[in-house]
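**Reference record**
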Amino acid sequence: MKQYLEKLTALLAPILEKLRGSLHLHGALFSFAKKTLFIVTAALFGLWLALNFTLPVGVVMSMVNKPLFERDYGLEVESLGYFPLKTFSLEDGTFTQKGENVLTFSELSYSPSLWGILTGKGSGNLFIEDISGKDNYIDASFSLGEFPCYDVTLEDIPLDFLTRLSGTSDASLRGDIDGHIDFCVLKATLPVKKSKRKRRSTSTARNIEGEFSLALHDIVFKGKVQTPMGKLDVGRILFGDIVFNGVMEKKLLKINTFTIDGIFAITVTGDIRLNLKNSSLSRLNLVVSMEIKDEKAVKKNTSLSTVLSFLAQYQDRKNKQQYHFDLKGTLSSPSVQKSRKINRTKKTRRNPSKRRK
C-alpha cells in the first residue's frame, strides 16, 4: 500500500505543472490564482486518496504537503469531508509559506470532477469562506483545457496576504476587494490571407473576451516598488477607494471606469492591448486626469514630491493641483506624454484693442 501511494504522489507534480500551464494567465494577481489552484489540486488529490484508502487525516495531509513542501508551501486542516454530488471540503485550514502563516479559512470546498481537474480538462466550482478570520468568500467556477473560462465572485477579500504570499518583506498592501470577473480564452479568428504558400503556426492564436467589475476599499500601500533604477521607497500612500470595471474584447481591455479617491483623485480612460504571452509587453493607451486632494500628505512624502516635480510639465495652467497626461508604451516601460484629449484651462488671450494706445 505504501509503495503504491508513493507512486501516486510522484505522479502529482507533472500533472500539476500541466494544469498550471493550461491557465494561460500572467501577472501578479493571476500568478496568485495559479498558486491557489496548485494548492487546491494537491488538497483534492489527498482527499481522493482518503476516500479510496480510508486513511487518517494526518496521513492524507502528509501526502498533500509533500509536493507543497518542495515549493516552501504548507497546508494544515482540522478535518476533511466528502458530501453528496461529489463535493470535497477542507475545514479550518491554514496555508503557510516557509513556516509563516499566509492565510486561514473556515471552509474550502470543490465540486464536481476531480479527474477533470487533475487532467486539466475539467470543470468545477471552488468556494472559500471566512478568509483571514473575516466574514467573506470567494466563489469561482472554471472550465479548464486549451481554452479555459473563469467566473469569479469576490466579497470583502483582504489584500494583506498578497504581499506575504509573494514573499515580499519590504512592502505591504492593506484594504479589501470585492467584485466579479468573468472571462474566457478563445481561439482567435485569423483573417484569410491570399498566398500560395501555407504557413505553419507552432501555436494557436488566442483572444480573451469577458468583463470585470471590481471595487477596492481603504487601500494603503507602504514600502518599496521596483523601478528601472532599482527599488524606490515610496513610504505610505493612502489610495483610498478604487473602482475598476471594463470589458475585454479579443486582446483589447477597454476601461469603462477607473477612479481612485484618496490623497489623489485620479480618473483613467482608454484601453490596454493585452499580450497573452508576456503581460509586461501589453501596450498602453491611457488618458489620465489627476488632482491633489491632500497637499500636506503629499509634501510629507519625499518620493511623491519627486514624482510630482517630474509631472510639473503636465500641470493645468490655472489649477496647479491638477495634472493631465497620457500613458503610452508598455506595462514594463510606460512613457508619459502631454494629453491631447483633455481640454486644459487655456490661457486668456489679450484683447488686441488694448495694445493700441
In short: Residues 218 and 240 are 4 Å apart (CA to CA). The longest strand covers residues 206-227. The helical segments are 2-21, 28-53, 57-69, 114-119, 160-165, 295-300, 302-310, 352-355.
